[in-house]
Design a protein that fits this description.
By secondary structure, the chain is mostly helical. The protein is built from 7 helices and 3 strands. Strand 2 and strand 3 form a beta hairpin.
Length: about 220
Amino acid sequence: MSSIFFLLIIPTIVLAIYAQMKVSSAYNKNVKIPSRGRISGKEAAEAVMARAGIHDVEIVPVRGQLTDHYDPIHKRLALSEANYAGTSLAALGVAAHEAGHAIQHSVGYSALKARMAMVPITNISSQMLPFIMIGGFLFGFGGPLLIEIGIICYFVLTVFNLVTLPVEFDASRRAKLELVNLGIVDQDEMPGVSETLNAAALTYVAAFLSSLMHLVYLILLRGRN
């Protein structure tokens, strides 16, 4: 099965590394390019949500780089400090993207609801995987039972990552559309925004392919036992 492992798993590891390098490169490049309008990420997120009639979402700064996220439970949009106060093309793209998630939540976007419903079981599956990997693949105990549990966990992760794709792609689509419609970014500035968001999207594609290939590998491994 070693040849199958290298065929299925190694390419996804390479893709994941490439995706992380791509998003870091795109972000670091475009965070240095100020937008002409000099509107901050916080202001951009506010404008995008206001256009959609959303006025009850708190926007807060958080530490770290690319730690931006939308919390649907507490209706809180968190932007990393560089994107919260920054006026760069990267900051505006990321802020509008997270505002896109708030819009999805407001309109009841089905894929977002599905992802939210899967969060508890996905967290459990993610927490179990390290023990399965250590026990089954390094120390060789557990046998078929660990393989079955691994299949279940990776199935859950694969479905979650699959549902995540339309959620992220739709949020980026909304972000690009609203930034232009609201006049926050000029059309000729959009390549910098798109480069940042497209690179980020690649990380979600890589995560889906990684969990899928691990799932396929364990299914094939079960068939050999």
